[in-house]
Amino acid sequence: MKAIVVADQAAGTAGMKLVERPEPQAAINDVVVNVHASGFVPTELAWPSTWTDRLDRDRTPSIPGHELAGVVTALGYGTTGLSVGQRVFGLADWYRDGTLAEYVAMEARNLAPLPGDVDFTVAASLPISGLTAWQGLFQHGRLRAGQSVLAHGAAGAVGSMVTQLAREAGAHVIGTGRAADRQKALDFGAQEFVDLENDALEDVSGVDLVFDLIGGDIGKRSAGLVRAGGTLVSIVGPAEARPADGRAVDFVVESDRAQLSEIVQRVRDGRLRTNIGNIAPLDDAIAAFNPTKRISGKTIIRVRP
Predict the structure, then answer these.
(1) Which has the closest alpha carbon to 267: 115, 70, 87?
(2) Would you tell me how many other CB atoms lie within 10 Å of the CB of residue 28?
(3) Contacts of 219 (CB under 8 A, 6+ apart)
(4) Which end of the chain is more exposed for a tag (fewer CB within 10 A), N or C?
């Protein structure tokens, strides 16, 4: 099968190659999926899990990419809940070969059924962005109707999901980003917008939940915007500053079949829109991983034409 591999951490994207690899086999509780579309996170080459296994042993050359949509082609011993020929989508394990390949072997529990009326390209854009937003808002942020949410990067792949899901839950959403992102953030449902380059972030105060996708100085300043009893949720590592009278939570997204099903149902009935900025074939995945210009939205690799 064709696959993108990385073998040299120091080389970064310059060390990525499109190669022929043997098709993976299904271990116990695994399925093999014929990948139709795949997603990735641009920072994957900086993750330890891209280069080592859970015992810190080198696992290169490894295949990056962890989001996928495709069709099940084989079941491992003891696998239940899915069948050969079934359309699926989901989030592959960080410490195993990923989805920038024609086939991937992964645990069945990390996949959810994909309804026939949802395109593979759309489905591949959902797992990381959708699950990150869902878990940050509802599991870690404990969001309730009537509360306020400050969504950093509201025009981006994750931020636009945060904005839409928070609005649907009955929250008042303030989006942030660059000046050029204002209209896109508003189109995704933000009711207010803060231009981080020209507006005063501190003019916002007393929000129930800050969803931080940026970190650094913005993350530190955001802690002061959280009201007493509120929450700062971060996906960029532990918060450098904590709300004076609130909680600070950082987390790594996890696959969850029930949540994936909730997310894809919202796409089907029009409550949730994807935010795809670029679609490229597998042969062009290396260039897509290292774009020459800023891409607003999610990049998806179409593995099968």
Answers:
(1) 115
(2) 9
(3) 212, 234, 236, 239, 240, 241
(4) C
Q: Which two tokens stand for residue 23?
A: 């098709």
Q: Side chain identity at 139, as an amino acid letter?
A: Q
Rg (CA), the chain: 19
Secondary structure (3-state) at 39: strand
Q: Please, are residues 107 and 78 in contact by the beta-carbon 8 Å criterion? A: no
End-to-end CA gap in the chain:
15
What is the distance between the alpha carbons of residues 273 and 135, in angstroms, rounded to a whole number? 18
What predicted TM-score, i.e. pTM, was given to this entire model?
0.95
Rounded to a whole number, what is the largest CA-CA distance in the chain? 57
Nearest to 42 by CA among 273, 286, 284: 286
E strands in the chain: 2-6, 16-20, 30-39, 67-75, 87-91, 103-107, 111-113, 148-151, 172-177, 192-195, 207-212, 226-234, 247-250, 276-281, 298-302
Burial class (CB in 10 A: 0-12, 13-18, 19+), 293: exposed
Q: What residues contact residue 23 under an 8 Å CB cut-off, 6+ apart?
A: 1, 32, 102, 103
pLDDT in tens, 84-113: 999 999 999 999 999 999 999 999 999 999
Task: Tokens 């450098």: give the residue.
Answer: 240
Strand, helix or coil for residue 211: strand
Among candidate residues 109, 92, 95, 87, the one with its CA nearest the CA of residue 38: 92
Question: What are the pLDDT digits (tens) for 188-209?
Answer: 999 999 999 999 898 898 999 9
